[in-house]
Input
Amino acid sequence: MVSEKVIFDLLEGVFDPEVPVLTIVDLGIVRSVQYHEKQLIIEITPTYIGCPAMQTIEKDIESKLQSNGIQKFEIKTSIAPAWTTDWMSEKGKQKLKEYGIAPPQEELDKSVLFGEPLVVPCPKCNAKETKMVSQFGSTACKAHYQCKACQEPFDYFKCLR
Amino acid sequence: MTKKEALYQYLLRMGDDSLILGQRLSELCGHGPILEEDIATTNISLDLIGQATLLLEYAGELADEPKTNDELAFLRIEKHYANALLVEQPNGNFGDTMMRQFLFDAYRKPLLEQLMQSVDKRLAGIAEKALKETKYHLRHSSEWVIRLGDGTQESHSKVQASLESLYRYAHELFFENEVDEILLNEGIIPAAKTLFPLWEKTVTEVLEMATMSLPKNNWKFQGGREGRHSEHMGFLLAEMQYMQRTYPNMEW
Output
């Protein structure tokens, strides 16, 4: 029986289809890898409910494990507790920034409606003077920003809590 | 009516609200007024359809003859849909789209917050997940209502007209019947009378900032929760169900 640690290490090699610099472990999508009565169960969770990448992620996990000789396993999707950006690893946040996507910042809004504006430093030049172009970006998990210093438009990985 | 039947009906209401509003917003894919809003409305659509997937999946398991969420979404007849009339109203102009969204988000957010305390753990889990997204939707729609209302004379008069036409559908969101009575007693759902003041507070605050005023008349329409829909619903369903009706059981 392959140990849970080995499986987990293999999953470290499965990349998110939308943000290919992050692994599904960095993102916190892999919730657990456990044996239940000799049955290997991998539990994953979506970032956003309607995330269209989930099916691709499942297929990628399957092919990763199968190509490493692991045939018997079950992938389960669970939604509770709900995913938050706090589950993203520090290593993942660093990789995001290097890729040009601003990692999630501490959310300041308490009232939901009219929160304080967030400080989202530019991932290219680190300037703090940036502006939000749109609350919604190229995928459900991102918003669209622009740097006022270097003018670079960039994606911001939204803080979700 | 048993508890199971009541929960089935309630999940259909929530699931259909999400599904039909998601379908409406998806019509804007490639047709948004500006690129950012094209992306925003379709993002919100995706979230809503994701919520519908989970809610209708749960409902399908409780049906007399178990059904998949796809069967529920695409193969019912009009009078079996339980969404509120508000969400099936056409996109109209951008003010209409945002006002419809705002009136709905302002109701959905407190509903989900309270459902997190539900004794039904599965429903509570769906609510917790959906709430995070819904808060974001509400922020977006509120900001647009304010921007349009407190904008130019033209944007103000247009979005005020949107409010006049859509407000009469909003009260149906707080419709209650035997279904609610049963689930309320079981501690599964919150009472409409606890949700309404929360909705009203958000609506009043935002409209004030938008320099808008509530309609003077007190017209209220309802029927959607009981399957009596407006004329727009048939056209929406014709488009939404086309693929599944033409190629039965097809899958992606």
